[in-house]
Amino acid sequence: MSTRSRLAVTATATLTLAALALAGGCGSARHTAVSDPPSGLPACHAPEAPVLPHTAGSLSETDSGAYCLAAGRLLDVFLTAPGGSAPATRWSRISTADTSVVGYGSAGVLTPPVDVTAGVFKAVHHGVTTLSSTLPNGTVWRVTIVVQ
Questions:
Q1: Which are the contacts of 89, defined by CB distance < 8 A and separation ≥ 6?
Q2: SS3 (DSSP) at 140
Q3: Strand runs labelled E in the chain
C-alpha cells in the first residue's frame, strides 16, 4: 500500500472514530484507540471534537497520552489555570518538541480568557513529537502527537 493510500485510510479511520465518539454522547468513552497505526508509530487516539473552526480536534489540561493527527490538519489546545488562581499561575506557552513534525499554526485572531493558555498547531510531517506546558508550581502537561 502506498504512503498516500495509507494516509488516506488512516485519515478516514480517524474521522470515523471522531464521529463515533461524538455520536455516543457525553457519557460515552471519550477516546477510541486507532488499532492499526502506520508502521513504526505508537498507537494513538483521536482528539476531542474541535473547539475552533477549521481544526481537526482539541486538547485541554485534562488530556494525556498519544493523539493522532493527519498531516496538514490543525489542532487547538486550551489549558485552563487551576480554579480561582491568579493570572500569574497560568500555564506557560505551549511548546512543540519538533517543529518539523508539528509546527505552530494559526486559526486567525485568538484571544483566550485571562486564565487560559491557548495554542494552534499544524501537523507538518509524518512522525511523533510532544506538546508540553508547565505551571509555575512545576506541574507539567505533556501529550504525544502522532502525525500520520
A1: 81, 82, 135, 136, 137
A2: strand
A3: 57-60, 65-69, 74-80, 95-96, 102-104, 116-123, 127-134, 140-147
Instruction: Write the pLDDT tens digit of every residue in 16-38.
Output: 333 333 333 333 334 444 445 55
Which residue is listed with cell 483521536?
Answer: 46
Structural contact between residues 144 and 44, judged by C-beta atoms closer than 8 angstroms: yes
Q: How far is CA 16 from each of CA 70, 119, 121, 128, rounded to the nearest angstrom?
A: 13, 25, 22, 22
Distance (Å, rounded) from C-alpha 129 to C-alpha 12?
Answer: 22
Say which residue the cell 512545576 belongs to: 138
Q: What is the pLDDT of residues 107-146, one digit of tens each?
A: 676 788 888 999 999 999 999 999 999 999 999 999 999 9
Cα→Cα distances 42→101, 135, 148, Å: 15, 27, 11
